[in-house]
Amino acid sequence: MEVKGRVSNSIFNNNNTLIQSEDEMDLRRGPWTVDEDLALINYIANNGEGRWNSLARSAGLKRTGKSCRLRWLNYLRPDVRRGNITLEEQLLILELHSRWGNRWSKIAQYLPGRTDNEIKNYWRTRVQKHAKQLKCDVNSKQFKDAMRYLWMPRLVERIQAAAASTATATTASPAFSAGANTTVTANNNTTYNNFEVHSGNMMLAPTIMSNNNNFGGSHVTQSYTTPENSSNGTASSDSFGTQVSPVSDLTHQDYYNNVPVGSNNNVPNPDYYYQQAHQLGFSDCITSPSGMFPTQEMEMDYFNSMDPNTPWIQSGDTTDNFWNVDNMLLFQQLNM
DNA sequence: AACCTCATCAACCGCTCATGT
DNA sequence: TACATGAGCGGTTGATGAGGT
C-alpha cells in the first residue's frame, strides 16, 4: 500500500536554492515496508541518527524526517522493548502519571525500552477504560483516588503474589483473609454486602445493598486483621520516613532506589501507598472506618459517584481489572 | 459466512522549544 | 535580536484484527 501525501517543507540545497517544492515531492505515508525499515536501519548503523530530514534524503527514503525519527525511536531502535506491559510497569506508569500527568516522554524515561507512544496508548486504552467503566473522568479526583487506593495497592499485591509464587513452590500467600463477615452495617444502617479484605484493610465491593445512595455520615464499623495487616498499624509509622525524592530531579535509578520494597526485596511494599497517603495528610488512612480511603469524605465522594450497574466484574483480561478471578472466588465464598 | 463493534497501536499532525546563523 | 530550522512532545487518527452476534 502506498499512501502519498504532502510534506510541510520544501527542500533546498546548501545555497538555499529550491531543489524540490512541496508539490513536486512524492513522499510516502502510512505503514512502513520491510525495505524501508532495512534502509533506515542500515543508514543509521553506518551514519548514526540525528538530522532526520537530511537523513531521510540521504537514505533514499521518501519519508519526512519526522516519520523516520518516529519509526526509529518507536519501533526499529534495538533496545525497544516489545510485548505486554508488565504489572511492575503498570504500577510505575500509574505512579508516575499521578505525579506528572501526561508527560509521556518523561514517564517513558523510567521504563527502559518503552516508548512514550506505547505508554500513551496504554493509558488511553486501559486506564481510560476503567474511568469509563466507573463513569467518571480519568482526571477526576474520584478516579485518581480509586487508582491510588484501589488499583495500585492491588497491583502491588499481585506483583508480590507473583514474586512469591516464583520464589517458592508453595501457593502464593493470599492477600485476603477468609472468615470475615459478609455484611457490614454503617452508621446510617446501610448494609454492605460483598466486601473483601484488602491488604488488611477492608475494601467495599461495588455491590452496595442500600436504598440510599447518599453515604452521609456513614462509615463501616468493623475492621479486619490479616497476617499482612498485623504489622501495618504498628510498624508502618516507623517506615513513614521512607520517601520518594521530590519529583523534579529523579533519575530512573533514583526512582527504583527510593521506592520502598517489601520483604520480598524485589517488589514495592504495598504499605508504600498507604504511607504516602499518610504523608499527604490523610493520617486516617490505615485506620479509616472502611480502611479503603484516607478520609470519610473521599470514601463518600467515591461511592456516591458510583453507578450501581457499573460493570466491575468482567470477563477477559484480568491483568488490569480491579476484580480478578481470585477476588471473584473470595467474593463468592464470603457470600455463601 | 457476513457483518458489526471494539480494542489496540503505528503513524501522523500541530505545536513548542532549542539551537544555529 | 530576529529568523530559520530541526527536534521533540502530546493529541489524534485510522488501519487492523479479534471477538461477538
List the helices and strands and how they pair.
Blueprint: E1 3-5, E2 11-12, E3 18-20, E4 27-29, H1 34-47, H2 52-58, H3 65-76, H4 87-100, H5 104-108, H6 116-133, H7 141-167, E5 183-185, E6 191-193, E7 196-198, E8 201-203, H8 229-239, H9 252-258, H10 271-279, H11 296-304, H12 325-334
Antiparallel strand pairs: 1-4, 2-3, 5-6, 7-8
The structure holds a DNA duplex (21 and 21 nucleotides).
What does this structure look like?
With 336 residues, the protein is mainly alpha-helical. The protein folds into three domains: 3-7 and 16-76, Orthogonal Bundle (Arc Repressor Mutant, subunit A), CATH 1.10.10.60; 87-127, Homeodomain-like (Arc Repressor Mutant, subunit A); 141-334, no CATH class. The protein has helices spanning 34-47, 52-58, 65-76, 87-100, 104-108, 116-133, 141-167, 229-239, 252-258, 271-279, 296-304, 325-334; strands at 3-5, 11-12, 18-20, 27-29, 183-185, 191-193, 196-198, 201-203. The strands form four sheets. It has a two-stranded antiparallel sheet with strand order 1-4. A two-stranded antiparallel sheet has the order 2-3. The longest helix has 27 residues, at 141-167. It is elongated, with a radius of gyration of 25 Å. The termini are far apart. It binds a DNA duplex (21 and 21 nucleotides) through helix 3 and helix 6.
